[in-house]
Amino acid sequence: MPTTPDYRAMLAIAVEEARLGLAEGGIPIGAALFHRDGTLLGRGRNRRVQEGDPSVHGETDAFRKAGRQRSYRDTIMVTTLSPCWYCSGLVRQFGIGTVVMGESVNFQGGHDWLREHGVAVVDLQDEACIRMLGDYIAAHPEVWHEDIGED
Ligand SMILES: [Zn+2]
């Protein structure tokens, strides 16, 4: 039987992406798609600000970078933040088996819904993730509210 993947090490890649985004002036949310054997398939970050494209979320960016996969059942979407509805929809559409999130304090997306539909969801409650996005929201509330689609 395979051992439990090292979720913290996987999260570190997503955090690296979030920090890159922050350095670019963007919203610090990063993600990475792994095979459960630990192979990194793709990594990405929210680039709403950088590219003026609201469809580039961390998860969708990592998913696209991973290219075509035969099956997603044995993949793990690792993201610094609870996935929004758009990204939760992606997880269900493609049958991604596991979601690992850095935190669900600054935002709660569709992770309970994913659990209800059989997706394994792990919340690492990572302090660095909570602080990084929390600081960003405090400094740029207007960009954040635009990102989550609230007035
Ligand atoms: Zn999203």
TrEMBL record:
Cellular compartments annotated: Cytoplasm
PROSITE patterns on file: CYT_DCMP_DEAMINASES_2 (PS51747)
Signal peptide: none
Any GO MF annotation of the entry: diaminohydroxyphosphoribosylaminopyrimidine deaminase activity
Keywords: Cytoplasm, Hydrolase, Metal-binding, Zinc
Pfam families: dCMP_cyt_deam_1
GO biological process: nucleobase-containing small molecule metabolic process; pyrimidine-containing compound metabolic process
Necessary cofactors: Zn(2+)
Domain CMP/dCMP-type deaminase, residue spans: 5-121
Pathway membership: Pyrimidine metabolism
InterPro entries according to UniProt: CMP_dCMP_dom (IPR002125), Cytidine_deaminase-like (IPR016193)
One cellular component (GO) term of this entry: cytoplasm
CDD domains per UniProt: nucleoside_deaminase
Subunit structure: Homodimer.
The protein, known as: Nucleoside deaminase
Species name: Luteimonas aestuarii
